[in-house]
Hints:
The chain is α/β, with parallel strands linked by helices. It has helices at 14-25, 74-81, 111-115, 119-138, 158-163, 167-175, 189-193, 199-213, 218-222, 227-233, 248-258, 303-309, 314-318, 369-373, 400-410, 433-437, 440-447, 458-461, 465-479, and strands spanning 7-10, 31-35, 46-49, 52-55, 87-96, 102-104, 240-242, 261-264, 266-275, 278-285, 288-294, 296-299, 328-335, 354-358, 374-381, 387-394, 418-426, 453-455. The strands form 4 sheets. Strands 5, 6, 7, 13, 14, 15, 16 and 17 form an 8-stranded mixed β-sheet that branches.
Amino acid sequence: MDAGAAVCVVGAGQSGILAAAKLRELGFGDIDVLEAADRLGGYCQTAEVDGRIYDFQAHLVAQQDFGADMAGTAVEALLRAHPVATQPESLYFVSRSGAGKPQLGVPPHFVPLLQSLTAEQAVDQLVEAWNIIERADRERRGPGLDGLAYDRISGETWESYRARHAPLVGEILQGMMIYANMRRPRQAAETVINANAHISGHVSQLGKMLLSLYPGQREALVGRMPPSLLAQMSSRRPISLGFPHGFRSLLQRIVDDHRLKVSLGCRVTGIEALRPNEIRVRYREDGSERTRTYAQVIVTARPAQIREIFPSGEIHDLFSERNCPRTWTRSYLIHTPNEPLTFPRRPDSAEPLGFWLIDPYGSYTDTDPQQSRHRITAANKQHPGPYWVCFSNSDLSVSDAEAWSLAAESLFLFPDPELVAEAIAEWPAYPSTTALREDWPSRVAAVQGRDGLYFVGEILSGPTLECISSYVHTVVPLWFADPARA
Length: 486
């Protein structure tokens, strides 16, 4: 492909900036990035309080995989090429004590299950879940074009997925994902399982938790665990990384390093393929309608935006709400005067600035409609001080005031939390069960590159920076042959 060909990237979020950067690395010089908003980051939203930046979205960027550090991950390569300040973040499961106070311990929704298992059964099922993940990773079934497939059956729902596994296996692969708050009853299992390898960090945390529950059987239980799981449990690798200066600091560094041209306040209103490798892009800038013709276009918008850009036709149908239903997440920045827990500290280092509290609400079931409407799933400590970011799923039928009321009631960790800032964003999480049963990924793959038009985004790659950067690193060189070698 001609390195001088004009290429348009629609969207300046994670996918858009990484796709444009990869094009630059392949030798392309004429790249326009058009972003509707007045800033980089897509739906990543931030708040600034007391001189510190708090990320509402796109904060979790990497999960534990196998090994003692981040070597070999897409994020590690990205940060090596574009160094910015990062901080490790630790993960803690939270439960209630007999007195109703928060404590580190078994996630509440695991308690009934673990009570039904012996210590040996619990560890054996944990190992089974670990082996599923490790085998999928070893066989290179993700992350990548097809996600991390594990042992999925196309179109399978969570209910049937859990039914064909031992109880703890199904619960681990379902409930131990930070993004599991987006699942719904009868949702396709593969829509979450596909995401990437970030369950593995949760499995190692659960392994350590199980050993703490049965101290008298520790040696025997350790003997039932494979070496790779034991290595993971002793790893110093962070569960995730955060950005003390905000996630957009990384995107801006990538833009600067690659000298990318990003036009903010440019909303794309239409894309029309005139003929192969001649695509007209219409966009609104400074109140005026403008057009430019490109040889190639990469669309990184969310499905709802794609439907606006393509008001009819095959692409509109592929990304219809039937296939890509809207999901919403609310996030809150709250002020709390006291730390709710005393966190463990490593003997040789200070406590990391960032840490996650998972399931601070309490128990959760797929069949509780009230909790499905709005609940807090995780709380994140991004900086020292009295501020926390809380993450939730939501239902648009819930008003802002009612949502905060429900959230405040569910935050048993924080007495009388004061709301400082909040954000709501459309979450392009996963294709619908219906879409997957109709082989939606193959249908999307069939239109990629038609007339020079391509699609990248979280609905295809999964929701973390590790997923997105790995996906872009794979597909863009496939689509755009390296002109230096052509």
